[in-house]
Amino acid sequence: MKVLVAQHPLITHKLTVLRDKETNSQVFRHLVEELVTLLSYEATREVKISPVDIVTPVAPMKGAMLSIPRPVVVPILRAGLGMLEGMMRVLPSAEVGFLGMV
After folding, report:
1. Overall number of domains in the chain
2. Is the dihedral of CA 62, 67, 70, 71 positive or negative?
3. Is residue 76 part of a domain?
4. Boundaries of domain holding 92
């Protein structure tokens, strides 16, 4: 399994505040959402894209859009639910599945 250690000052700062025992649950939930949003850029780095032709207000151009099938976000219940909103902010059209362990 490939492991990436995110080396970014914002991520380090937010993780430190999140881990502090003085952090209340409202701030904790907000930090989890922010961290997932930041980490989602790395998590989606290798998502496939396809070329597409579009027309801008200035001129036609070649762009790129997510390929089909599009990513599916699958939080692992229960802790993963707190991470769902941050990921959906980056991939609003993604389908959502759920994985629960018994």
Report:
1. 1
2. negative
3. yes
4. 9-96
Is the pTM here over 0.90, yes or no? Answer: no
Q: Tell me: the pLDDT tens digits for 18-54? A: 999 999 999 999 999 999 999 998 889 889 999 999 9
Nearby residues of 35 by Cβ (< 8 Å), 6 or more positions away: 11, 14, 15, 18, 86
Distance CA 48, CA 8 (A): 25
Amino acid at 87: M
Assigned domain for 53 exists: yes
Rounded-to-integer distance, Cα 61 and Cα 52, Å = 9
What does the alpha-carbon distance between residue 56 and residue 4 come to, in Å, rounded to a whole number?
Answer: 37
- In angstroms and rounded to an integer, the radius of gyration of the C-alpha atoms of the chain is 17
Q: Quick one: pLDDT at residue 101?
A: 76
